[in-house]
Amino acid sequence: MKTNLTNLIAIFILSFSVVCGTSNTAIAQSNGGGNNTGNGNNGGNNNTGNNFNVSFTTIPTLITAPATALLPGAKYRFSDVANGISAVVTIVSATGGASVAILDDNTLTMPEAFSPAITVPANSNGLVEFKIEYFNGNSNNAKALDTLRATAMDIDGSGDLHEIDALNLGTGAVVSYMSTTPQISVVQNGNTFTGTNIAGIEYTGVDTAAKQVMFTVTNKAVSSFTYWAGANNGYSVPVTRQKGIYFKGFNYTPAATLPVKLISFGAVAADKVITLNWITENEINNDHFEVERSFSGNDFSQIAIVLDGFDNGSRKNYALKDNASSLQGKTVVYYRLKQIDKDGKFAYSNIVIARMAAASDVSMQVSPNPFAEKVTARFNSTAKADAEIRIVNINGVTVQAKKTIISKGYNNVQIDGLSSLPAGVYVATLIVEGKVTGTQKIIK
User: What is the sign of the dihedral through the CA atoms of 134, 135, 141 and 146?
Assistant: First the structure.
């Protein structure tokens, strides 16, 4: 949802003692939030359960240094989010130049929701990562909630802008969303579920009746989880988007499940050819994949149909090479998968990017991103060589590394042992014969 600039200014004045920050955006719309006050039961006859898991209605307190306000590293405590429970929200990182304009805006969205306003620069794919932890009272003793339902709301957009929300509630989490109105693509990568707007339709305000742009993730015994919020902004000006996580479940009719679990999806370029590889697990009722390509990141067209992959236990490996003449002269190419079920239902994957780097013999794609326990580097090489992949933190320290001998052609190298790394931003670096040939920023 687009924010209302007048309301942003008013909110800023009223809450200056807690958070600070302004936004110079060129796009705004009227506030549709006036109907969303009260007990948060707008559209409540479709809600599962009668009470909120947690409610972010209190004013947050900055518990780190004042200079950290609204920046990565800042921590805020919300008291009494449930009986005897507080929540600490940490701004972990920001990518693509994204920033937090307002930490929690209770006027433009459901008051009980955690509702940050995120600013994304022009022509950028920007995300802000938040970690939300629950504690007994105002102590530092973690509190696990019996069941947590987190609903990402209002993942809408416009012709040149598509909002993105992602949730990681840990192992065993399940997702639900509508199947008949695919205005968002919901993809599972590890324990992270990412919803990306694909329809480019704008909705006024934040309304839980717009289930076609919502998804819910549920898990048990949750003491902390991770939330990413942002957008792919194709405009030539920065935009500020109102985001929101509503801690309540919803009935989606008809409900969709993910018929195919996508383990990984990557695209790497070498010798004017782009190789796409993806791995699935536990396919149920899958019919085929359609591979779509875009040179803008917005307008996709089908380039191939892939009927089946190669069995690898419970998994399947797929591969496709794109050497079309239309790639010549391009520097960046976007791809996504459209998975088609046997009954005609479909779902889109996340979008991956291949960079045509003519000056380099090797280019690399690392996934999943964000990661939890391990990452896989995929790349093509023009020759057999000694190589090393390093994971480097923001201080330039190598925190994990793996040496290997790579082959001419396609390579797939897994780097394990990352579960103990603290959340933050890292750089995966590919070194071939002593020279750095590829880097990619990754997030935990």
Answer: negative
pLDDT band per the 50, 70, 90 thresholds, residue 340: confident
Q: What is the pLDDT of residues 35-87, one digit of tens each?
A: 333 333 333 334 443 345 789 999 999 999 999 999 999 999 999 999 999 99
pLDDT tens readout for residues 269-291: 776 788 899 988 877 778 899 99
Name the pairing type of β-strands 310-312 and 332-341.
unpaired
- Phi, psi of 54, rounded to the nearest 5 degrees: -145, 160
**Cα Rg, the chain, nearest whole Å:** 22
pLDDT tens track for 138-188: 999 999 999 999 999 999 988 889 999 999 999 888 888 876 656 888 888
Query: In 10 A of CB 364, how many CB atoms?
Result: 25
Least confident of 118-127, 349-358, 366-375, 416-425: 349-358
Q: Are 100 and 128 in contact (CB under 8 A)?
A: yes
